[in-house]
Amino acid sequence: MRLAGKGEMFMFKNLMRTFGLPALVTSVVLAIASPTLAQQPARPASTPVGIYLAAQGGALLQPRTAAAFGVEFGERIHRHVVTYAALSYFEDLMDTALTDQLATVSRTLTARTARSWDLRGRDRGVGLVVGAKYLVGTGTVKPYVGAGAGALALHRTITDSRAGDVTAATFTEFNVGDASLTTRTVTRPLTEASVGVDFDFGRTHVDVGYRYRRAFHLSLTPDFSQAVIGVGVNF
Questions:
Q1: What are phi and psi of 90, to 5 degrees?
Q2: Boundaries of domain holding 181
Q3: How confident is the model at residue 217 (pLDDT cuts 50, 70, 90)?
Q4: Does any domain span residue 43?
Q5: Of 42, 55, 73, 107, which is the most exposed, with the fewest CB atoms less than 10 Å away?
Q6: In the chain, how many domains are there?
Q7: Who contacts 134 (Cβ-Cβ below 8 Å, separation ≥6)?
Q8: Domain for residue 128, yes or no?
Q9: ω into residue 63 within 30 of 0, thus cis?
Q10: From CA 98, how far away is CA 126, in angstroms rounded?
Q11: What gap in Å lies between CA 225 and CA 58, rounded to an integer?
């Protein structure tokens, strides 16, 4: 095994400094897939168009670690292009800046009322994204990059163990949070960028990838990323 030289280490550090985690994940995914891809025999130009249905699971990497689940439907419309629609559930998308504010409010209330307060918040979300992926290669292993757009439905809950639901009161009394999220679920535009590797073994479809998403028109705009593993069926 060849050790990385000084020039390669400099490129790695510069990549991390410029692009951060998404670029690192992209590089790792492509590095893993490249040797296998190079060994694949070429397939004929008339590769059949097909569809797949896959269940997905994974972990949110930011703003905080939480579970995420979903289902994805895709159709191969070209040798190198797949269109897809993905429906996902996110357990908690609350920004760390807001959780820090809730901790501050808890300390303030504790000092004022002489009893302990512990405000906890959670932003549950459901996202629907429609997009396309560009696949490199036509064999069993196919690295890809993709992008899509859709909508995110977000529901906020802020509670205290003794006072119960204080979502609205936290905003009206301390101006913490978003006015639109105090009493109802809101829907906002959502965009997505993805990178990963598709594996197709006969009728079995496997997807290992990374997703970066951004929602708009919220006081604290959720930027969140996710590691994804999907397993499904080719039809």
A1: -120, 125
A2: 6-37+50-234
A3: confident
A4: no
A5: 42
A6: 1
A7: 80, 81, 144, 145, 146
A8: yes
A9: yes
A10: 20
A11: 10
Nearest CA among 147, 146, 141, 137 for reference residue 79: 137
Beta-ladder partners of 84: 74, 131
Q: Is residue 94 classed exposed, middle or buried when 0-12, 13-18 and 19+ CB atoms within 10 A define those classes?
A: buried
Tracing tokens 């307060």 back to the chain, one arrives at: 117
To the question of pTM greater than 0.70 for the whole model, the response is yes
- What spatial distance separates the first Cα and last Cα of the chain, rounded to whole Å? 41
Which domain CATH number covers 213?
Answer: 2.40.160.20
Note the pLDDT tens digit of each residue in 98-147.
999 999 999 999 999 989 999 999 999 999 999 999 999 888 999 999 99
Q: What three-state secondary structure class fits 177?
A: coil
| 42 domain-assigned | no
The count of other CB atoms within 10 Å of the CB of residue 152 is 26
CA atoms of 160 and 143, how far apart (whole Å):
46
Cα–Cα dist 56/72, whole Å: 7
- Is 44 within a domain? no
Of 199, 224, 190, 213, the residue nearest 54 (C-alpha): 199
Which helix (H) or strand (E) is 192 found in, with range? strand 186-201
